[in-house]
Amino acid sequence: MGDSHCRCLHGFILLVVLFLSFVFSFASKIDVSFHGDEKRSLSSSINSSLSESAEYTMCATHKEAKDGKPIALDFDCEQGYVISKITYADYGQSTGSCGKFKRGNCGASNTLNIVNKKCLRKEKCKLFVPDKIFGPSHCKGA
C-alpha cells in the first residue's frame, strides 16, 4: 500500500512550532508530536490490523501575520494514514529544545486537550493559535 508514513512536507511529523506573540511580547511554543499509523481496512478479508508506523522531527519558527490575523498550521497525511499520537502541546513559555520542551511557569493549561480533540485520529488537521482558541496563557511580557 505504498509508503508506511506521511512525508515530512505533508505534516505527518513530530512538530515543534515557536510562535512569536507581538501582543504580549513573549515567545509561545507549541511542541506537538505526531506519530501516525496506517488506517485499518474494514472491507478487506486480509488481516490489516498490523501496520507500520514512522515518526519524524521538524522544528520551525512561525510568526504572526502582519495584518494581525492568525495563520493556520495545516497537517495533511497521505491518504490512508492518520495522526495517532500527540505527545506534547503547550501554548505558553515552554523551556527546552526541539523535541524536548517542558512546560514553563505559565501557559494555557488546556492546550494538549484542545490539540488532541482537533487532530487525533484525523488525516487532516488545521490549528490556529490565538488566545481565544487555547485560552489565556497568563504569561507576562518580557
TrEMBL record:
Coiled coil: none annotated. InterPro entries: Lectin_gal-bd_dom, Lectin_gal-bd_sf. GO terms for molecular function: carbohydrate binding. Residues 1-27 form the signal peptide. It comes from the Eukaryota. Residues 72-142 form the SUEL-type lectin domain. Keywords: Signal. Pfam families: SUEL_Lectin (PF02140). This is D-galactoside/L-rhamnose binding SUEL lectin protein. It comes from Arabidopsis thaliana (Mouse-ear cress).
